Amino acid sequence: MARFILAVAALVMAVTVAWPADAAGTAPWCAVLDFGRGTAYWDCQYASIEQCRPVVIAGNRGFCNPNPAYVAAEPPRWRHKRRHHRY
Question: In whole angstroms, what is the distance from residue 34 CA to residue 29 CA?
Fold first, then answer.
């Protein structure tokens, strides 16, 4: 029984520790909200800082921050066609 309780506690700890990485999101801006007790929640769903600011100003304690997990898509590379000059 003690092993079962220990396994459940380990599972709960693993899920708790892994939660911020999953909540990072894919948008470039995050509202980092402070709910007290030393915990912060990263709400990363904003395309610009202008979209993030109203969430923080609306009474939630926190600030806007660039998403550290955001990876911008590479722009497509254009292939230059060679011009063949006729003489």
Answer: 16
Tens of pLDDT along 24-60?
568 999 999 887 788 888 999 999 999 999 988 887 7
Q: How far apart are CA 13 and CA 59, in angstroms?
A: 30
Other C-beta atoms closer than 10 Å to the C-beta of 6 total: 10
Could you give the CA distance from residue 9 to residue 6 in angstroms, rounded to a whole number?
A: 5
The beta strands (E) that lie in the chain are given as: 29-34, 40-46, 62-66
**Order of strands across the sheet that contains 62-66:** 40-46, 29-34, 62-66
Mean pLDDT of the chain: 75
Q: Are strands 40-46 and 62-66 parallel, antiparallel or unpaired?
A: unpaired
Span of 14-23, 49-58, 59-68 with lowest mean pLDDT: 14-23
